[in-house]
Write a structure and sequence with these properties.
Blueprint lengths: L1 E10 L2 E11 L3 E6 L6 H8 L7 E6 L10 H4 E4 L11 H11 L4 H10 L15 H13 L5 E5 L7 H16 L3 E5 L3 H7 L2 E6 L2 E7 H6 L5 E6 L2 H8 L5 E6 L2 E5 L3 H10 L4 E6 L4 H9 L18 E2 L2
Parallel strand pairs: 3-7, 3-8, 5-6, 6-7
Antiparallel strand pairs: 1-2, 1-4, 8-9, 10-12, 10-13, 11-12, 11-14
Bound molecules: adenosine-5'-triphosphate.
Length: 313
């Protein structure tokens, strides 16, 4: 279990992590999501004792990382920009790690097999693709057979088979009762991998909830509507609080109004409706809603490209 209490990290004037408290439970995959620069890597680095908190504490199984006698057996971490000697082979890199942590050689063979590194194990790491580097990082994280896994963007650079492999690995480790904390930018992947979500924006926790609660719990209802007269319906339901997307001819998505209000507005104007379907939020939709005001680096819409969403104000 990972427990953070009032955890903060400042770099000069920049507050990267701002007084966050959370618990990452064993037996589950917990996804860690947030826009670029939100504080995910800094939080993970503090969990692993690589950055010192400015305030607050974070423990793994009741102790700060540095206070564990055999940390590699306790916590396995894949963090960005892991330093690996480029002239070393993958096998020798793992052997050096194992030797300094009292891990037997047979475990090296096991993790090489587990991560599909076999054919590349005797090659120099300097020539590795990003995906092979990720597999080596995951092999290193698994080396001590730890109870807690912290994986920062583990699927970066992996091919579809590799992405699926990470998903099955994470789910398998959690099923064994381990704590699995994993960050990713791939929403669709996170939606099928994680049981629980922690969303961070500008250093603060925006959501800490089971996956199905996050995807079900949008503040605004989202209804698919088919009608013979889309223009009349847009006029009937339009207001500053209602967002309307034109999906195809006679096919709309109305956000911010319950189905009954749409039906009543249509009935009072004798507009025929042929479909009225409440939508389940995708994780991506839920995430976009949660982080709408929290983006540190925002993309600009080119001025001459019409906005995708027509707001009827
Ligand atoms: N060593 C550092 N010195 C100064 N600022 C830093 C340092 N490390 C991180 N930051 C800043 O802290 C903030 C959080 O960075 P962090 O890398 O934790 O975000 P992230 O959520 O992992 O982002 P990404 O998704 O882009 O990897 C950013 O504004 C970043 O520029």
């Amino acid at each position: 279990m990972i427990e953070a209490q009032g955890l903060s990290k400042r770099f000069g004037a920049k507050t990267a992590v701002d007084n966050v408290s959370f618990t990452v439970q064993p037996g589950k995959v917990t996804g860690f999501l947030g826009p670029n620069g939100a504080g995910k890597s800094t939080t993970m680095r503090m969990i692993c004792g690589l950055d010192n908190p400015t305030a607050g504490t974070v423990t793994v199984n009741g102790r700060p990382y540095a206070r564990h006698k055999a940390p590699l057996h306790e916590v396995g971490a894949l963090l960005e920009a892991k330093a690996v000697h480029p002239k070393r082979t993958a096998y020798n890199h793992l052997r050096a790690l194992a030797a300094t942590h009292g891990i037997p050689a047979r475990r090296i063979t096991e993790v090489i097999e587990l991560t599909g590194l076999g054919p590349a194990a005797k090659k120099r790491v300097g020539g590795f693709s990003m995906g092979m580097g990720q597999r080596l990082g995951i092999a290193a994280a698994l080396l001590g057979d730890p109870q807690t896994l912290i994986l920062d963007e583990p699927v970066n650079g992996l091919d579809p088979e590799g992405v699926q492999w990470v998903r099955n690995l994470a789910r398998g480790l959690a099923a064994e009762g381990r704590t699995v904390f994993i960050s990713s930018h791939l929403m669709s992947e996170m939606a099928v991998t994680a049981d629980h979500l922690l969303v961070i924006g500008r250093g603060r926790i925006l959501a800490d909830a089971p996956m199905d609660e996050v995807t079900a719990g949008s503040a605004r209802e989202r209804i698919r509507v088919r009608t013979d007269d889309a223009e009349a319906l847009i006029t009937a339901v339009g207001s500053a609080d209602v967002e309307i997307r034109r999906l195809a001819a006679g096919h709309l998505e109305i956000i911010g109004l319950p189905a009954r209000s749409i039906a009543e507005a249509a009935l009072s104007r004798r507009i025929l409706i042929t479909e009225l379907t409440p939508q389940q939020l995708s994780l991506e939709d839920a995430y976009m809603e949660l982080t709408r005001d929290e983006l540190e680096y925002r993309s600009q819409q080119p001025a001459d490209v019409p906005a995708q969403e027509g707001r009827t104000a």
